[in-house]
Amino acid sequence: MSPxxxxxxxxxxxxxxxxxxxxxxxxxxxxxLLPLARKAGLPGIPExxxxxxxxxxxxxTQVVEAMTTNETFFFRDKVPFDHFRDSIMPEILQAxxxxxxxxxxxxxGSTGQEPYSLAMCLxxxxxxxTGWRVEILATDLSQEVLEKSKAGIxxxxxxxxxxxxxxxxxxxxxxxxxxxxxxxxxxxxxxRQLNLLHDFSQLGTFDVIFCRNVLIYxxxxxxxxxxxxxxxxxxxDGFLVLGAAExxxxxxxxxxxxxxxxxxxxxxxxxxxxAKMAAATATSRFSAAASM
Length: 292
Ligand SMILES: C[S@@+](CC[C@H](N)C(=O)[O-])C[C@H]1O[C@@H](n2cnc3c(N)ncnc32)[C@H](O)[C@@H]1O
Known about the structure:
By secondary structure, the protein is of the alpha/beta class. 43% of the residues lie in helices and 18% in strands. It contains 12 helices and 11 strands. Strands 1, 2, 6, 7, 8, 9, 10 and 11 form an 8-stranded mixed sheet that branches. Strands 3-5-4 form a 3-stranded antiparallel sheet. α2 crosses α4.
């Protein structure tokens, strides 16, 4: 691949997904895109670039998807889910006792392990959520991972990563080598394709946003821009959860870290609170919310 072709791909990926590749990631591009080129009947990456320049939007989508990292697993890093169970949900149960509803957004949900981990946490809360309207919205750039997430079917290897055995037995059915999440857990999660680079204000407002292990791939300017827009769709007393290697510190005043709660942030109140109307509109749009 020539420097011009590399630069073309670098810009394309930055513009379409936010992925900020440094100048030395030739091996990554080759390992991910060579199989794609071969599948498209092309001898190599120069021909792939040529075809995209010729206006193949389907190929652009495939290239962007192939370059995303979809690594995830159940209860990844454990701590955020402890925060969810021990800090976030107890506070929400009090703060939303009047309206008995909670909206949660997994902003880069990948193949579903993260939103379904949250769904299982909520299920474990049992009677505390009786009569509550619970929405978990899982979004991702990649349609392919969303399809897998919707199906809720995982390999033996995937269910062995992070998922306590009791939860496997309780919430999954085995089918040969595969395990499928029970329908009631799957029904708690709604799916929607969404690129974080684009406007997401139409989703309404959320009480909790998990946006983990995706901003890490973006440059500073893109992160700042996304934090600004996340702050507008998070309730003033809501919670933002980031990945272990991500932080708002030094990037934005829109959120402040929780003392003693790694990865957990709260709107700083610097920005105007989002309009309640938006939440009402969005709630009716995602009418598949589970009643607990
Ligand atoms: C490493 S996974 C993280 C999954 C999960 N949040 C976790 O922490 O386990 C990153 C996900 O971000 C998605 N992604 C990458 N760029 C995106 C973008 N611009 N908008 C939305 N999702 C994006 C990828 O498709 C991928 O599924």
